[in-house]
Amino acid sequence: MLIGLGWMYALSRDIGSYSATADLGQIAAEADIGLRDLEVSIRDHLVYGDDQSLLDATLRHDGIVERVALLDKAVADPADRASLTKVKGSLDAYWAAVQRVIAIRNARNAVLAGELEPLVAQARDRLSLLKSAGGVDSTALASDAAIAVLLMQEHLTRFLERRDPQDAGRMRAELANARGKLAEMNRYLWIAGTQQAITEVGQLLDRADGILTRLESAVAEEDTARSEGMAPNAAGIAANLTEIRQRAEARAGSLRSALAAGASGYATAALWTGGILLLVGLVAVWLIQRSVGRPVNAMASAVTAIAAGRTDVTLPALSGQDEIAAMARAVEILRDTSIESERRLEEAQALQDRLAREKDRAEADSVAKTNFLVNMGHELHGPLTDIVNSSQSLMSELHRFGADELATDVEHIQWTGEQLVSLVDALLDYAKIEAGTMDVVLQDFDINRLLVEVRERSMPAADLHGNSLDLAAAAGLGQMNSDFTKVRQALLNLLDNACKFTEGGSVTLAAEKTERDGGIWYRFTVSDTGRGFPAAQTGRLFQPFVQGAALTGGVSRRGAGLGLTLVGHYTAMLGGDIEVASEPGRGTRITLFLPATYSPPPADRPLQVGPPADAAPADPVGSGRPLLTVGALRPVAQLTP
């Protein structure tokens, strides 16, 4: 016994030394892994600029500091102490460089949002005034200068993202191009007031030149901080942590060998002791089996019967407070519980049957509702179409007879009739979608002509609420092979919503071509300066028969609440996706991503809101991605292609 206790004491001491050495290596390894995670979090923050990644980086830095503090308490070897001192210095220098890079990035973003973007907007406003100051030449020069300013801003965005000197050169070239167009315009235009406008635009371009120089300097300073402050210090931290870990692993290996040698002697003694204890145990088991085996076998038979579903079993009558009596009481509780479970199972089955019957009734009611919508839609569509056609004929006759005031009233009747026809068409489309009979009709159509058409058709709604309706799209966007009617109706529904919930503001329809997953896609964006809504309400806006005013607390508007619902279904049918960004009081931006060439989606995609995303999903047609995503309400110029 004393020999065993001596062996146990020696082993416990060696095991303690081995455990401390292994813990030291483990802490160093965790600090090394934490450094890599910290670099990933910092890289994410520099790419996306969100607060969550910065918070994550701060927490990871604090975790590394805690592990370094643990190492500081644990290391005793002089070499480890020297390496740890280097780790502390490199970590402080690395984190200081990170803070410097973040400060430079925040200052740069402030210059972009607070100086450059307002300056570009002012320059475009002045150039818009110059378009109508002269003839065709002045209009073309002003348009070219405005496009050059936009391209300068776009190349600046790419330069800030990719650090490509070619993007910086193109940015400067576009600024020079805008100045050249302005100088040429100065030679042609001599109408009063134009010289002042040209001078103002020139001054704005000079200020833009200075801002570009500051941004280029900020980029260079940030790259220097990253290359000279972050990279070498991170490498130094990793190298010194590796040295500490390797030395700890070497010491742990030596201690492991000593433990193996000591355990061998202890194992011999333990085998002899175990043999004796085994013999004693066999005798004890034989005695216990005689006194305990019979009641235990009886209870085992009872448990088997209960497991087979029988509850009419007889349990052995045992009294007392020992383990056997407690087991008998537990089996009795098990039997009572089985009886209660059977009763509840019968009640659950009855409830399930009732719910199934109610489900069948609900499905029948849904079919009846769909049939009612289809029948009523067809019954209303014909008379409403006759009203619109008759109003058009009557308005033409009244204009011919010179009764312009009456013609205006008839024109209002015609417009109201067209709105009712659109409402009936929306109800019919929704009924077809519910019935699963909506088809996709493919044809080739020009994007620019589509944009012009939907803008012209939405102008009355914009004028009704005192809004401006602008079109922002480059010429020559190309063609789509898709369902023209569904794409047009989706854009009309978005513009109608934007005009209804914006009073005396601006509505913008933008479109651009982009590349995704090796194919050509189009991004259509409808943005407004209206009242907006909380991001948490996004999913409800796309539910059928939900009015936007009910979510934002505004005045109820016309419509059945199907506009955004149909937009969602059309987008899903055409293989696209939707990004919604809105804030109360700041307006709303809804973006449709549609493939240039239609291909059937692999599976149905429900109208549900996915997690927030800064950009469109990488797999927009995959069944595993949500149809709707919530984005940040950023300016259109900052959207990632």
UniProtKB/TrEMBL annotation:
It is an enzyme of class 2 (transferase). It is found in: Membrane. It holds the Pfam family HATPase_c. Residues 331-365 form a coiled coil. Residues 611-620 have a biased composition (Low complexity). GO terms for cellular component: membrane. Residues 375-598 form the Histidine kinase domain. Keywords: Coiled coil, Kinase, Membrane, Phosphoprotein, Transferase, Transmembrane, Transmembrane helix, Two-component regulatory system. It comes from the Bacteria. Gene3D superfamilies: 1.10.287.130, 6.10.340.10, Histidine kinase-like ATPase, C-terminal domain (3.30.565.10). Residues 290-343 form the HAMP domain. The chain crosses the membrane at residues 266-288. One of its GO terms (molecular function) is phosphorelay sensor kinase activity. It catalyses: ATP + protein L-histidine = ADP + protein N-phospho-L-histidine. Its EC number is 2.7.13.3. Its main location: membrane. Residues 601-627 are annotated as: Disordered. This is histidine kinase. It comes from Azospirillum thermophilum.
